[in-house]
Every structure is written in structure tokens, then in C-alpha cells.
Amino acid sequence: MNRNFVRHIALFMGATRFFIFSVLIFCIGFSIGFSADIPVATTRNRGAHFSEMKPQGVMVTQLTKPEQALFDAVKVGDTDQVKKLIADGVDVNCRPAPEWETPLFVAIEYDRSVIVQLLIDAGADIHAKVGHFRYINGKPCTLNPPVRAYQFALLQNYTSVKVVSILLNAGADVNEVFKKAEALCVESPSRENHAGFSHRMIGMPDSTPLIAVLSKYSLKGYNPIFSKANGDVAIYLIEHGADLTAMSKNRETALQLAISSRYRRAAMLLIEKGVLNHMTLGQKQVAFNMALLTGFVPMMKILKANGVTLPEARNRLLGIAIQRCHLAGIRILLEMGASPVPEHFGDCSLEPPVVEVMTCGRYAVGKPLSYLQDTVHALLKYGADINQSNCRGQYPLGIAISMRQDTIQQNLNQIEMLLSMGADVNRFQAKGPSPLALAIQKKSKKIVELLLNHGADPAHPIRDEYGTTLTPVGFARKLGAQDIVNLLTECQSERKENL
Q: CA end-to-end span of the chain, whole Å?
């Protein structure tokens, strides 16, 4: 009896020790897990190598209540509250922690130009550097490297000329160089800034402010609001002493970047300031190519007038212009020595010039027919073949017949134009239907009549889509186009009588 009692006591004590040990292990594990759940900014993302990074959401702020009130007033744009707090003696250079943002940086981020001026007038330090920045939800952004207020303004998606002018008037260096490759928000959530667009900051390596602004398009993509603002900032920098000879790390000039970024007013201003005098022929040729690719015709004309010549790949440029339906660019390239002769477009890598231009005819809607006619005339003048077909058997007259236009009159105008320039109305080849066959297939009596009036053969056999050989009358009857059947029959009878 006593032995059983002792045995039970021993088992109970063992179970108790095991339970206590398990609870202890659980508590330790829970404590570690809780600590791990606290979001801490790490260095695994690019640019986040700052050892002073504070934990997200649990950062211990050094701000007093009045200082925090100043940050809040700046953020929401409460100008009266900002004036009151400044008058009460709140430190305008306060920070939530060392190397974190000041109220001036918040005003710049939200493009509060009036508040920026108030803070600077009250003694805000425009030369102070910031390496960390809090977002609305408390999660930090690391700026690599730390930047001054002027640089921070230029890194924004949207910054007004007013803010930039205030900072420059306060003593910022218009040509202060960005020392590092990028300034990115690290460990930051996706959020929307005051203009309703995704917020992200990117800078160019070892570039001046002007180069950084002109590079924003290629780095961030096109947005009409941002593009207008950045173009205005670029113009302001050009007019206020920016180094116009500076280049990006990729050796791109300010003019090249302005053209490729579609900042056309800035590009024209650079021309007025004489940047071409500091550019090599190769740099001018690159600028010309960019103007061609972006459809910047006035710039192409200016560069041409300033002695720019085309590189050896001039015919490739002509092919690109044709592919992009850049009709004005085509004419300029032809005048500069590009050649549209058939042997340069014999393979399938590039469409024959006149074929491609006629395909572009739908983009010329709303413009006079002469816009298209002048381009075809220029191509023919420099050696293009109006009857050359592509690898799929398409040819200019056939495209003009079959292309879907807003009105049939547009087709008729283009057909008349090509016939007057020498297009073959009786083009019969193994590959591709004849003009008359295409007109019948389109069931357009007006086009059939126009072709017949220009000598189209109403009796030449036609192959349908199944390879069956039919007469034009038989083909029209098969399609149920009785009015065309009558027209063809009448034309055949008249020609027999004339014979």
C-alpha cells in the first residue's frame, strides 16, 4: 500500500515538473515571437544599409507636443496653425529622431510652397541632410544617401517650380551633384501622395539637378501631370544657371534627355542657350534619332539646319520612320540622304516604303490628302516602287482598296491618287489578289467603277479563297453583288463593241 502511494507521488511530481518546464519554454518562445512580430526595418532591400534605422511603428519620438503639432499642421497645409506655432517659438528644425525629417521636408513632400517659405523665413536649415523619413502610417523610408532639401524636392514625383525657386533663392546650389546612384523608399508601404499618384523617389547617379529632372521620364514612366511639372522645373533650372554641358553617367546630354523625355519646351530652350555648340556630331546624331522616335519634327529640322548628317544606318532610320507612320520624318530623312529604293527593302524585316505609308493612311484621317500624297511623291522621287509588294503579297493599290476607312470617299481619293502616280490597275501575280478582285470582294460598286474607268480588265480570271478560278462576273455573283455583276457585264459589252 505504501509502495503504491510513493509510486503515485513520484509520478505526480514528475508530471508537475514536466508541466512547469513546458510552460516555461512556451513563455520564452512567445516572448521571442512577439519581439519578432515587431516590424523592424532591415537591410535586405537595396539602399537600406543605415545602422541607425528605427523600428517601424514603435519608434521613440523626441518631439514635444507643440513640435508634433507643427508636423501635423505642415502635413495638412494649415498655414495659420503653422504661423501660430512659429510665433510661439516652436523649433522649425525639430526632428523626431537624429537624421529624420524636419518640417521643411514634409512641406516639400506635399508641395506646400507657402509653408516652405514660412519655415525658411523662420530659420529652417535648407542644408540639413535627412536620411530617414516617416510615412503617414509611421513606417520609415530610408534615403540613400541622405539628401538636402533641394535634392529631396527634385526627387519627388511632383514638385512645383515655386518650391524649387524658394529653395534656390534661400541659397541652394543649382548644380549640386547627386553623389549616389539612387534614393529609394525602403521598407515603405504602397501609398498615394497628395496628387493621388503612387509615390516613389529615384535619382540619377552622379548627376546634376537638371540631368536628374530630365531623366525622370525614363525612370518613372509617363504621366501628363508629372511631365508638365518636371518640364517646368527643367525650364526654370535652365534659366537660372544650371550647367547645360553636364551629362548623365551614361554620357547622355541634357538635350538628348529633354528630347527623349518629351520636355519639348525645355529642349527648345536648350537650343536657344547654344547647347549645340558644346555637342559632338555623334551626340547630335543621337539627339536627331531621339527626335525622330518621339515625333519631334521641329527639333529634327533644327538639327538638320545645324549640319547634322545621318549615320550609316540611315535606311534603317527610314524604315523605323515608315513603321511609325512618321510621314513628316520620312520626308526629312529622304532630304538628308536616306534611300527608299526596292533593294534596301527586299527582305521581310522592313515593309516596302509605299506599302507602309499607305497602311499609315488611316492615321492621316482629318488631314488633307496632300499630306499623304506629298510623302508618296517624295518616296517615288527618291526611287521607291509604287507597285512593290511585301512578303504577304500586299501592295499599295490593294491596301488603298481594302483598308477600312470612315467613308468610301477616302478609299476613292487614295486609289485615285495612286493610279495618277502610276499604280498598276491590272496587277496580276501568283501571290495576292488583283485590284479588281479586292474591289469586288469589298462589294464596292464605286471602287469597281473607278478601276474599270482606269482600264481594269473585267474578264481576267479571279481565284477565290478556296483556289477556284472564276470570272469577275462569276465572283461577284457568288458574293451576291448583283449591282457589280451588272456593271461588269455592261463594261464587257461596251469593250466588245469598241473592238
A: 139
φ/ψ of 416, rounded to 5, equals -60, -40
Q: How far apart are CA 357 and CA 322, in angstroms?
A: 6
Query: Residue 178 has which C-alpha cell?
Result: 547627386
Torsion of CA 301, 307, 312, 316, to 10 degrees: 0
> What is the per-residue pLDDT for 23?
63
Short-list 493, 494, 484, 495, CA closest to 462: 484
Please list, residue by residue across 284-308, b when 16 or more beta carbons sit within 10 angstroms of its beta carbon and e when fewer do. bbbbbbbbbbbebbebbebbbeeeb
- Please report which confidence band the pLDDT of residue 460 belongs to, taking 50, 70 and 90 as the band edges: confident
The residue whose grid cell reads 538635350 is: 255
Asked if 148 contacts 129 with a C-beta cutoff of 8 angstroms, the reply is yes
Domain ranges of the chain: 36-189, 425-499
- Say how far apart CA 351 and CA 391 lie, in whole Å: 8
What angle, rounded to 10 degrees, do the helices at 314-323 and 281-293 form? 20
pLDDT bracket for residue 293 (50, 70, 90): confident
Task: Give tens-digit pLDDT for 143-160.
Answer: 767 888 888 888 777 788
Helix (H, G, I), strand (E, B) or coil at 445: helix
CATH for 425-499 is 1.25.40.20
CATH fold of the domain at 36-189: 1.25.40
- Going by C-alpha positions, the residue among 105, 81, 225 that lies closest to residue 163 is 105
> Do β-strands 462-463 and 469-470 pair in parallel, antiparallel, or remain unpaired?
antiparallel
Element (H, E) at 75: helix 65-76
36-189 shares its CATH topology with 425-499: yes
Higher pLDDT, 319 or 117: 117
More confident residue, 456 or 49: 456
DSSP 430: S
For Cα atoms 215, 216, 220, give the angle at the middle one, nearest 5 degrees: 130
Q: Rounded to the nearest 5°, which phi and psi values hold at 134?
A: -85, 140
